[in-house]
Amino acid sequence: MAFNNNAKIIRRELLTRLSKIQLEDKVQSEIDRIPLEMRPKKGGHVRCCVYRDRAVIKYRVMAMLGFEEEEDELRRLNSYFEEAMEHKNNDSPILSVVDEACSSCQKSNYVVTNMCRGCVGRACVVNCPKDAVKFHGNQALIDHEKCINCGICQKVCQFHAIIYAPVPCEDVCPVGAIQKDAYGKEKIDMDKCILCGKCLEACPFGAIVEKSHLFDVINEIKGEAKVIAMVAPSIAGQFRDGMPKIMGSLKALGFDEVVEVALGADITSKNEAHEFKEKLEEGKSMTTSCCPSYVNLIKKHSPETMHFVSETLTPMEYTALELKKSQPGSKLVFVGPCVAKKDEALNSGNVDYVLNYEEYGAWLIAAGVEISECEEYKIDGNITSEARFFAKAGGVRDAVAAHLKDVDFETIQFDGIDKTFLKKLKAELKNPSPRLVEVMSCENGCVGGCSSIAKPTSAIGMLNKFVESEKKKIEVE
User: Fold this and answer.
1) What is the Cα–Cα distance from 162 to 231, expressed in whole angstroms?
2) Distance between CA atoms of 309 and 156, rounded to whole angstroms?
3) Directed axis angle between helix 315-326 and helix 262-281, to 10°?
4) Which one of 15, 73, 97, 319 has the largest count of C-beta atoms within 10 Å of its C-beta?
5) What is the DSSP letter of 356?
6) SS (H, E, C) 264-309
7) Can you tell me the distance from the alpha carbon of 157 to that of 115, in angstroms, rounded to the nearest whole number?
8) In this prediction, what percent of the chain has a pLDDT beyond 90?
């Protein structure tokens, strides 16, 4: 999911501009100028006019600050920013749709392209069960009043002239949580949403916006509280300068301390191994619980299978609990690739803020911090390789298995939750042979998270390199 597009570039530019003016104490004088600077009158526009572009930028900034609707069009962005810093909008959703940016995409359907050759065979017409395909001259046309989107016409066309045109956000949502309202605009049903972030990445208009904690974190660092960064293992695969310098860059941004969440992963794997051993004795299967998006899926859409889900806490939670004991009163900030972690942090109350890798990257640019020039941060030599490999698909399974070397059991792994996932999962859980099932919402695991920067293959390579280098250090010592 790490491919780039202009909607992402704009999102990152907004994060960078906002954090830069906050760092320079220029929010009051500069924030309302951002839409004008990003879309000057003679600089061209993407939508119908430059003024529409500016309005969309304003509304995207509002959504980043946690405001869904604008009641007063004359209210300045500075006012929204001040209110956000006072935490008056804590109950706002993590994901929201900016109506003004939503293009009201046409309903998903099948479309005949100009590749149609008007052939004699006309398999599309012959095989359509609803007589929805007709020929006008030498071109096939689909009557969408009759079409039931069965896709038969596409399958039988020998010229591949018929394509399926989906609504991007609806197409990728595994649980049907985003649908059009009466005005044709997309709305997210938070009672269904599992915060997998797939719609956020799929929308080519940048209409879906994630509420950002970046500005709260900068505010905390400017204050007097001790602020600790908790970095997910997958961060080692996002930047090429290596984990010691990545952690050093967080220190350069102002964090008082930087801790690897792999510390908590060791606790998670040990506890899950103990829990799974008990399940095995009862002849029952168990799924992992470290992916909050997956846990949300089960809670909201398959509560009858909740008893299969491990009750063990996530690595983020265990790391936070350890820091709460050793560093009472500190503000804890998780840095990772996941939208759902913001929901987990909010519900647990142990983590104060969550930053994704895009926000972290934007902050680096705004602060003028080059990772390559940062001092190396001391790496914890007591963390196991298995804990750091939680970041990639199969890593959790292997870490749990490492604690059960004398126990015989089967394992299965799912990375990537789609519309068919629950059906496949339930089929596996019905298997009479008890098994450990690892589930990750994102393909390739956390290294392929919705807010990741590097391509998964590259990220896995960098993660492997870091883990191997730490192994060698331990062997030398």
Assistant:
1) 46
2) 43
3) 120
4) 319
5) E
6) HHHHHHHHHHHHHHHHHHCCCCEECCCCHHHHHHHHHHCHHHHHHE
7) 11
8) 88
> Residues of 288-327 as b/e, b for ≥16 C-beta within 10 angstroms?
bbbbbbbbbbbeebbeeeeebbbebbbbbbbbbeebeeee
Residue whose pair of structure tokens reads 């197409």 in the numeric block: 171
Q: How far is 450 from 459, CA to CA, in rounded Å?
A: 13
Structure-block tokens of residue 212: 């950002």
Taking residue 144's Cβ as centre, other Cβ atoms within 10 Å add up to 14
Total H helices, total E strands in the chain: 20, 15
What average pLDDT does the segment 360-385 reach? 96
Q: Are 12 and 358 in contact (CB under 8 A)?
A: yes
Bridge-based pairing state of the strands 353-356 and 286-287 = unpaired
178 to each of 133, 181, 184, 355, how far by Cα in Å?
29, 10, 12, 24
Element (H, E) at 440: strand 435-440
Within its chain, how far is the Cα of 314 from the centroid? 17
Residue 442: closest CA among 430, 427, 459: 459
Characterize 246-271 residue by residue with b for buried, 16 or more Cβ atoms within 10 angstroms of its Cβ, and e for exposed.
Answer: bbbbbbbbbbebbbbbbbbbbbbbbb
Instruction: For residues 373-385, give the mean pLDDT.
Output: 95
- pLDDT at res. 357: 96
Is 70 exceeded by the pLDDT of residue 3? no
- Which segments of 282-414 does DSSP mark as H helices, in order? 292-301, 315-326, 340-348, 357-367, 385-388, 395-401
The answer to whether the CB of 215 falls within 8 A of the CB of 19 is yes
